[in-house]
Design goal:
This protein is mainly β. It has one helix spanning 18-23, and strands spanning 2-5, 8-15, 34-46, 55-61, 64-72, 83-94, 107-110.
Length: 111
């Protein structure tokens, strides 16, 4: 399983079940490559609650990036910042991975 972004191949973990999507990066200190959330087309909202590492959060619709949030910082139980966008997938990368990526770029998601 992999994702191609900016001509680079990233190893990917795919989250598809409601439990996997809910848990995501909570409590994890490492991410090898990226984490892909299969969401179904719509408006989605993510937050960094209980995340331990900074992330770049990318919203994707039909393999095109629709929204990018760079350097999203971890927060505790009291965080209220949300990262929202429209798409059918959301991809999380370690912070800094998407610094040269922009809305409209293509991204390939391979299962």
């Amino acid at each position: 399983m992999s994702v191609i972004l900016d001509s680079k191949v990233h190893e990917a973990e795919y989250m598809e079940t409601p439990e996997q999507i809910k848990h995501g990066m909570m409590g994890r200190r490492e991410l090898k490559g990226c984490m892909v959330f299969k969401m179904g087309m719509g408006h989605h909202s993510f937050w960094m609650r209980k995340c331990l590492v900074p992330l770049d959060i990318v919203f994707v619709s039909k393999n095109v990036i629709t929204k990018i949030y760079l350097d999203c910082q971890p927060c505790d139980l009291n965080c209220d910042e949300r990262y929202t966008g429209i798409g059918d997938h959301v991809v999380e990368f370690l912070s800094g991975t998407c610094r040269n990526t922009k809305v409209g770029d293509r991204i390939s998601l391979y299962y």
